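Hi, here's the filled form for the chain we discussed.

Project: internal
Contact: R.S.
Residues: 475
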Amino acid sequence: MADISNIVKSIQNIMRTDTGVDGDAQRISQLVWMLFLKVFDTKEEEFELEKPNYRSPIPEPLRWRNWAANDEGMTGDDLINFINNDLFPTLKELDVTMDNPYAPLIKGMFADAYNYMKSGTLLRQVVNKLSAIHFDSLSERHLFNDMYERILRDLQSAGNAGEYYTPRAVTEFIVRTVDPKLGEKVFDPACGTGGFLISSINHIMRHGVKTADDRVTLEKTIHGIEKKQLPYMLAMTNLILHDIERPDIRHDNSLIRPLKDITPAERVDCIVANPPFGGTEEPGIENNFPAAYRTRETADLFLLLFIQMLKPRGRAGIVLPDGTLFGDGVTARIKEKLLEECNLHTIVRLPNGIFAPYTDINTNLLFFTKGEPTKEIWYYEQPLPEGYKKYTKTKPVRIDDFAGLSEWWDNRIENELAWKVSIDTIKANNYNLDVKNSHRGEEEHIYTTDEIVEKLHASFLKCDELLVTLKSELK
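And the returned structure, exactly as it came back:
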């Protein structure tokens, strides 16, 4: 099998010559819906062997095997007409009342998907290259992981991956530390391409899945929500290929539902997530939250959601920017709620470049448990590897870089990288969690462009909050 990066690159090069596809984001979207159909067809072959009465929710002529797998199949105008007039309209309007659990999955996948290509000849070339990749043996399934990583790198180049990409080493460390067990509900309400969910599945598989019933339990306890179509499709495809037959990932905005409507039965044991940050939600979303906590800052709203969604004794490991740590006003009130209702026991200060190359905003890992107030917070300043000035695209973070932190985790002592702060000190500083390493002397901080933008963004939000308060008082 040829190198998967070369295959993806050749597919992208074919698409670049098509007049209908404009930019990397459309090329990736075009690739992902075809990749999903191929992966689903491969899974259906397994279903048919395991379940003699299995019936596909996709009409027979529209199944990948019947129009795409044959190298000499439809091409040119016939293929484009088939895709635009038969395949997409049928899958977008698939009858979800049929007695088939996969029908809603297929319909959801294609609800906001599009065929951008205009040349049926070029489309046939792309289909043939995809058909040459085989995902039907365990030894070759790593190919999808390679393709997945390549697509994520291309998303980074397209300039929008920061919304839904977390380095694998970070997801692995967070999941390993939160340690979800078989039978516990695991949730990521901004799951992007599914990195935290895949890490959770792999972790539980290694430590708790021994029987077919265990696998059924695992499948029923992994949950995600993703707002945007492209990462949603990638997440669904990824979970299906990891043998989650019916992924419980909803294509929706987690913040659109009033917080008070979340019932105890919906609460979860573990939240592992990197919510979007540095942006604002659409007008009106803040009205789904209690008046004292209303803001349009996305990261702040997700923090409220995390607190609400956790069961008593539920655990969370999340990524948050510095802006949330030092923010005041509504942000400070949200942090006060967090510290009163949860034990925020650890904050890991991450070094520069973790999310390179698309942002230099400083980020942190927060670990907390629901149901008891915070008494003290341990801080750990994660160092860069020796010889590094920062992480870069060519020198990304690795799971081994967290070895020192993992060793310290269960045997906590203060040292040049670790210190603790009492809740009284936090309260006295108006819930400012941006506590610098007390073992280091004062250093002049040179702000990056992203950090300056983040501070301006926080200031604008503060102005909005003050205007709302003023208007309310004038009334």
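Let me know if anything looks off before we file it.
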